[in-house]
Amino acid sequence: MFAVAPNRVLNVDFTSWTGKHLEVTEGDSSSPNKTLVYAADLNFRKPHMVFQATGSARLPATVNFHAFSRAIDVNINGHEIAFKPKGMLKYEAPFESPALGGKVLRWKNPKYSNPSYLECSDEHDTVIAKFVPSSAWKLTKAGHLELDGRLPTGPLTDEVVVTGLALAYYIMVQTRGASGASAAAASSVVVATSV
């Protein structure tokens, strides 16, 4: 399907203390010589994610989440891509790739213990990309994307990166919201019992 090449690693970082800006870079994350590949603004209102790109990527792309549905709408390179995560602790989100003529790619997390760890597989169940969340306790480090070296640069890579980051961000917000709600519930229980 693709020519053999080494895997690409893209660093994914929040670049502001508010967490409203995201950068995807290639190269050593601690080096000043890293290359900006994608940038995204994160908003409370639609569009929730707005991607710009440098280099060969042809963006902008937008991502919209829905308040009363799990549906995620992506508009990238002039194509609408709709996908809807299924599952609670093990997410799965298939989508039809315009770059592959409608063939289905599937983002899923194979690990119950780490819902933000994601893998993207093609129709033959070959993993072509992974999102690995940061294990560091830093709010600016989101994680990194590992792209199969055979994945061609251009529209297909754009689709994989944008849909993967949209799902990862969706899961992060859901996870943080749940942990924040449980922390608030726990603190209210402590307050109620200490009165």
Walk me through what this model shows.
The protein has 195 residues and is an alpha+beta fold. It has one domain. Helices cover 21% and strands 36% of the residues. The chain contains one helix and twelve strands. Strands 7-6-5-4-3-2-1-12-11-10-9-8 form a twelve-stranded antiparallel beta sheet, covered by helices on one side. A hairpin with a 5-residue loop joins strand 8 (92-97) and strand 9 (103-108). The relative contact order is 0.17.
Spell out the blueprint of helices and strands.
Elements: E1 8-14, E2 21-26, E3 35-42, E4 49-53, E5 61-65, E6 72-76, E7 79-83, E8 92-97, E9 103-108, E10 118-121, E11 127-133, E12 141-147, H1 155-194
Antiparallel strand pairs: 1-2, 1-12, 2-3, 3-4, 4-5, 5-6, 6-7, 8-9, 9-10, 10-11, 11-12
Features:
195 residues; alpha+beta; 12-stranded antiparallel sheet
Instruction: Count the E strands.
Output: 12
The rounded Rg comes to: 17 Å
Q: What's the shape? A: globular
Q: Structural class, from secondary structure content?
A: alpha+beta
Number of alpha- plus pi-helical segments: 1
- Average pLDDT number: 83
Task: Describe the main β-sheet briefly.
Answer: 12 strands, antiparallel
- Taken in chain order, the helices and strands follow as EEEEEEEEEEEEH
Distance between the termini: 66 Å
Q: How many separate structural domains? A: 1
The fraction of residues assigned to DSSP E strands is: 35-45%
Helical content class:
10-25%
Low confidence ranges = 180-195
Biggest sheet, strands in spatial order?
7-6-5-4-3-2-1-12-11-10-9-8
